[in-house]
Each structure stands twice: as C-alpha cells, then as structure tokens.
Amino acid sequence: VQGLYLDCDRDSIVYLSDPIGPSCHTGARSCWFTQVQLQPEAVGEGEGAGVASGGAHDQAAHVPRTTLLALERTIALRREALAQPTEGKPSWTARLLTNPELLCKKIREEAGELCQTLEAGEGRERAASEMADLMYHAMVLLNLQ
C-alpha cells in the first residue's frame, strides 16, 4: 500500500497500491467489474436495485481505471479514430500519432523542461506538471511502438 485516502466526510476509503501481479483471484488486473444498476428512487440492495455483470473483467467499458490506464485508452481511441474520415482540426494526440518527428521533438522538449524544474529550483508543482506532459507524450510514443 502506497497511500490511504479518505473522502471529505470520511465515509469512503481508497487504497493506492502497487500490486504484485493480478489483484483478482481470476487473474484479472481488477476485481471491480460488476456494476450495480439502480432504478430511479431505489437505494441500496433492496427492491429496484440489481446487479449487472458479464463480460471479461478487464475489457468492459465500465471497469474503473486508473488515470494512466484511462489515458492509455484515450490514446488508443484517438489512434483508432484516425481510420475514420473527420471534419475540422485533428486532436493533438492525432497530430502526434501521424507525425513521429513532431512527437519526438515534443518528448525531447518536455524532458528538457522537466530537468529545468530541478536546475532552476522551480519546485514540486512545476516538476509534476512537466512530468505529466512528458508521460503523456511518452505514452503516445509507446502506443505507436
């Protein structure tokens, strides 16, 4: 466990962890694949509440995702969308996916800016921002690879 978080009224707990291997007894990355469907006005597990499950653990669209998994999925969707004709300006991700020179230029630029945060003593917040930029661009590159 790397962190433990409580919500503002302290009725929910989230554990941030780095699991060793799958976290579900089925071998899936997550056990959180069963979605509870509530009917209007229904609360809890009584009448009007039902459980909807099915499909593969990791493949369902409603599987809770970490931020990086969600970003990875968004990048993949942008890549899939490249095969479809579109109107208007392409997304930044689409531009990067279709222009490896631009992508590598941005990765080098973001890496330099991250190093500059340390060299210039710009602080943690600025470093985190630059690291996020670098990770995003690196994930686009990994999608292409």
Automatic annotation (TrEMBL):
Claim: Amino-acid biosynthesis is one of the keywords in the record: yes
A Pfam family hit: PRA-PH
GO molecular-function terms, A-Z: ATP binding; phosphoribosyl-AMP cyclohydrolase activity; phosphoribosyl-ATP diphosphatase activity
Cross-referenced InterPro entries: HisE, PRib-ATP_PPHydrolase-like, PRib_AMP_CycHydrolase_dom, PRib_AMP_CycHydrolase_sf
Catalytic activity entry: 1-(5-phospho-beta-D-ribosyl)-5'-AMP + H2O = 1-(5-phospho-beta-D-ribosyl)-5-[(5-phospho-beta-D-ribosylamino)methylideneamino]imidazole-4-carboxamide; 1-(5-phospho-beta-D-ribosyl)-ATP + H2O = 1-(5-phospho-beta-D-ribosyl)-5'-AMP + diphosphate + H(+)
NCBIfam families from the UniProt entry: histidine_hisI
GO BP terms: L-histidine biosynthetic process
Alphabetically ordered keywords of this record: Amino-acid biosynthesis, ATP-binding, Histidine biosynthesis, Hydrolase, Multifunctional enzyme, Nucleotide-binding
Associated pathway: Amino-acid biosynthesis; L-histidine biosynthesis; L-histidine from 5-phospho-alpha-D-ribose 1-diphosphate: step 3/9; Amino-acid biosynthesis; L-histidine biosynthesis; L-histidine from 5-phospho-alpha-D-ribose 1-diphosphate: step 2/9
Record-given protein name: Histidine biosynthesis bifunctional protein hisIE, chloroplastic
Domain Phosphoribosyl-AMP cyclohydrolase: residue ranges: 1-33
